Amino acid sequence: MKRTKMLRLALALLFCLGASAGVNPTSAAGGDRHDRECQRRCNEEYRRRKDECRNERGRERHRCEDAAKREHNDCKNHCR
Q: Which helix (H) or strand (E) holds 66?
């Protein structure tokens, strides 16, 4: 009888700890204003760079677009 009580208590404690560990306050809040502004700025810069690449031809255009994409990914990683 005493063992079953202890087992139930231990399982309840493990369940509560597991449930509280799964909650992330930043994901619930949807990120803060700085993150959204930073990503918006990255997206605007990427679109501007991509538009500039339209003036290029052939392989130069692909290189330009690849460079714009790399910078976009670097910028987004900086925002995190």
A: helix 58-79
Give the list of residues 6+ apart from residue 23 with CB closer than 8 angstroms, or none. Answer: none
Stated pTM of the model:
0.58
Strands (E), 7-70: none
Condensed to tens digits (0 to 9), the pLDDT of residues 40-50 reads 999 999 999 99
Nearest residue to 54 via CA among 69, 41, 65, 43: 65
Angle, helices 33-53/58-79, rounded to nearest 10 degrees:
170
Domain residue ranges of the chain, discontinuous segments joined by +: 32-80
